[in-house]
Write a structure and sequence with these properties.
The chain has two domains: about 30 residues; about 240 residues, no CATH class. The strands form four sheets. Strands 5, 6, 7, 10, 11, 12, 13, 14 and 17 form a nine-stranded mixed beta sheet that branches. It is of the alpha+beta class.
Length: about 270
C-alpha cells in the first residue's frame, strides 16, 4: 500500500511540475519588452564663414588676409556615438560607422544611421579620421568606404601607400600667395600614432551638444541633424595658419595645428523631424 501511495504521489508531483513549467514560459516571454529601433540622419554642410562652400568658383579670405579658392575637400567621419542627457550613449556598431564626406558628391554628406535605439538624444560624438585599430587591420577587414584599392578612398587618393595610413582630411585649392610652382596649396592631414613606433597622431574626437533641441528617434520619426563644418576655421582656429608660410602640409609635425583647427570647425545648426 505504501509503494502504491508513493508512486501515485510521485506521478502527481511530476505532472504538477511539468504543468507549472509549461505555464511559466509564456508569461516570462510576454514580460520581455521588444527592443525598438529607428533611424537618424546626420547631414554635413560645408561652409566658409557665413558663405556656402563652392568648389573652384568662389574666392575666400582667411584671417591672414590671403585670398584662396577650394578645389577639393574630403574628410572621414567615424566612431559615432549618440548622447543622452543622463550621460548614456548609443554607439553605432563600428563596422557601420565609417563615412567619407566629399564636397564634390552631395550624396556623401548625409549619413543615415539605422537600427538606433529609440529615445531622445541631446548630442553626438564622432572622430575625424580612421582610428588606429582599424588602420592596422588587414586590407580585407577594411572594405566599403575604407577600401584603399577601389571606391572613394582610391578615387580621391585618401590613402598613403608610402606611409601606410589614411588621410583624415584633404583640402586643396589655389592662392596667389601660395609658394608652390603652380600656385596650389594642399593640406593632406593624417597620422594615427604609428604601427610599431610612436609617430604623429592627428586623430580628433568631436563632441557636439544639440542646442535647445533634442533629436527624437522612434519607429516612425526620423530626425535630421544639420552639422555645419566651417573650413575657414582650418586657417583661423586655435593656431592661425598662413597659406604663404604653409602652402603644403602632409606628414609633418606642424600638421597637428591643422588637425587642432579642424576639430573645432563643427557645429549643430538645427534639427528637423521627418
Amino acid at each position: 500500500m505504501m509503494k502504491r501511495t508513493f508512486s501515485w504521489l510521485s506521478a502527481w508531483a511530476l505532472a504538477s511540475g511539468l504543468l507549472m513549467v509549461s505555464c511559466s514560459f509564456p508569461d516570462e516571454k510576454d514580460d520581455t519588452d521588444p527592443i525598438e529601433t529607428g533611424t537618424i540622419e546626420l547631414q554635413f554642410d560645408n561652409i566658409v564663414g557665413s558663405q556656402d562652400l563652392q568648389l573652384d568658383n568662389a574666392r575666400y579670405s582667411n584671417a591672414a588676409g590671403e585670398d584662396f579658392t577650394v578645389s577639393k575637400l574630403n574628410y572621414y567621419i567615424s566612431n559615432i556615438k549618440l548622447l543622452k542627457m543622463d550621460g548614456s550613449a548609443f554607439t553605432v556598431p563600428q563596422d557601420s560607422s565609417y563615412f567619407m564626406i566629399r564636397e564634390a558628391h552631395p550624396e556623401s554628406q548625409k549619413l543615415t544611421l539605422r537600427n538606433v535605439l529609440t529615445g531622445d538624444y541631446t548630442g553626438v560624438e564622432f572622430m575625424v579620421g580612421v582610428d588606429s585599430v582599424r588602420s592596422v587591420m588587414e586590407p580585407d577587414r577594411r572594405k566599403g568606404i575604407l577600401d584603399q584599392y577601389s571606391g572613394p578612398t582610391n578615387e580621391e587618393g585618401m590613402y598613403w601607400d608610402w606611409n601606410p595610413g589614411y588621410i583624415f582630411l584633404m583640402l586643396e585649392g589655389h592662392s596667389d600667395l601660395a609658394t608652390t610652382a603652380n600656385g596650389k596649396y594642399y593640406y593632406h592631414i593624417g597620422g594615427f600614432g604609428g604601427r610599431t613606433t610612436r609617430t604623429i597622431n592627428n586623430l580628433k574626437t568631436v563632441k557636439l551638444t544639440f542646442p535647445g533641441q533634442k533629436a527624437i528617434v522612434t519607429t516612425s520619426i526620423v530626425s535630421n541633424v544639420l552639422i555645419q563644418a566651417d573650413i575657414l576655421k582650418i586657417f583661423n582656429g586655435q593656431t592661425q595658419m598662413s597659406i604663404q608660410k604653409n602652402s603644403s602640409l602632409m606628414f609633418a609635425d606642424s600638421s597637428k595645428y591643422i588637425a587642432d583647427n579642424y576639430a573645432g570647425m563643427f557645429s549643430v545648426k538645427e534639427i528637423k523631424m521627418n
